[in-house]
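Sanity check

After download, print the first record. It should look like this:
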Amino acid sequence: MKFSKEQIINLIAAYHQNTISDEGVQNLREWMDMNPDNSEEFANYLALLKESQAISQINKVDENQAWSKIYSSLSKPAKKNKSRKIQMWLPYAAAVVIVFVVSYFMLYQVTSDYDFNQNYNFAEVSSVGSKKAILTLDGGQTLILEESLTDMFSEKDGTRIEKDSSNTLKYATNINKGSLLIYNRIDIPRGGEYSLILADGTKVWLNSQSTFKYPVQFVGNTRRVELTGEAYFEVAHNANKPFFVKAGDTEVKVLGTKFNISSYTDEEYIATTLVEGSVQVSNLGRNELLKPGYQAVVNRAGGKFHVQEVNTRLYTSWVNGVFEFKNNSLEEICHQLSRWYNVEFFFTEKQYQNLRFTGAAKREKPVGFALDMIEKMANVKFAIKDDKIIVGRPSD
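Expected structure tokens:
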């Protein structure tokens, strides 16, 4: 049986909470028996749970000793009266999502209007994100890219543009392109995402609330595009025609590689994360050559620039509809939820913004799943006021 990361994290957490079911015991033991390397993964998962402070007593656990202790104890039958609790808890694990740093959330004054003990239907004020975008052609004509139907149209230079049933926009190579640069722009709304294949074969995935400007055909000795928001690139290799991405004051130069750029205007940083190949990140006269597994972070305000080694999966798994996060604040989490589910969050007190969580998730679930999961991991509640989600706690 194949186990996902989130399943194993849940089983380990359930074991330490004494809420693991008989089936959970069998699954955890099976996973531990599958591969000797799983002991290292186990230590990583346990460390994540400790960092997130999701389980109070887990801070006393030593990752290096826990494997043998749990392994030897799994032969004992689990308590029957605990199985129901874990079965209710596990379905929510696929709802928590990763985000990047922001601090624009407003604080709501606590009033008697917020009943945090009420059972709310959060789907009433939110919607699960989907593939949708608005394409603007060179002449200003706009096209809504939403319906899962094939379509085909062309630019004024004759470039064929096809939208297939998987909602991928593809630009055909035009051998008669001439010397004039013709630009298109694609805008991704809140609650949207989209992908496209440029005329040179470069693949681009665009996240919610992003704008991407690019030529329909690359003319001359360079390939240049502009990004606001977040995108993942798989750049077609061409040593004679480098590829440049402009994101604010930052420019990324590549020949052929895979990388992610997060450049939202309401965030303090522009982050370039390299998965494969090599890129040069430039900002205000400073240049850094990245190696795979490294990230360049530029502070928009002060222009500070630093490079750090990261787990690239934390910054790129959104492309496959899966988010992973490590020790992110609740403010960061709610910001990502707000983009993907097209809903605003407000905190009754600043202290709740700083609660931290670690985990893995799929974002195809409704927002209510994520909120239930967060409530189970921390002393915080969610309520609805008008069309907004309020974050706080019931008054004593």
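If your output differs, re-run the checksum step. Summary of this record's structure: DSSP finds eight helices and 24 strands in the chain.
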